[in-house]
Fold:
Amino acid sequence: MTEVVAHWPFERHTLPAGEVWHTYRTIYGPLSANPWCDTRFALAGAPGEPNRRPAFYCASGSTGAIWEVVLRNVRPNAHNEVYVAPAELAGRSVARLRLRRDLTDIVRVDPPHRRRFVDADTVEDLAWETACTHSVHALSQGMAAGLDRFLAAHGVTLGGLGWHSRQYQDDLVHVLFAPPLAEDDWEVLEEIPLDSPAGLALVRAAVEAAGYRWIVPPLDAPNEPELPA
Structure:
């Protein structure tokens, strides 16, 4: 069986206090970790049960935060143009937050950082690369669960995982786990509904930052974005 960690001890990452961006369902507010998260690297519970620890996704910039959640499945047309159906923006907001304290025991799983605990071009390395890129999130959830168990056996509580956004490489993305994360660790600096003028400006800026051109959705646009081929 593939081991998620080949070398111990290894140096973990610290997410320093400071500003981050977080995209979320407006109804839940900007500070709530999601106990029913089923996306990449969530610490999923048993079927029908909540996560073993709720997940909170954030990024170093608004562009990464928006690409990770609302733009990740867009399909550019032949003219390198991108749109988002209005239903995908309704009910979503992006918040600029300030983390009040350093968060420790974060594991960076993107290369070259994961070379701290697995060797390059090995089965273990391939398993992590697959977890970081495959659309079947159960694969990444299994890797996160294995890492969580390994660290717990060595007296360490996994604070979260980090990687550079594949959609927008300039931003660093984190999934943080609660606990140790708590709502009191955050200060809300700004909340922006994505379907507001300010939110649409951020979405357009994110599209253009990645080299695409933003267009208004056509009248016959589907309510859900098409998955990439």
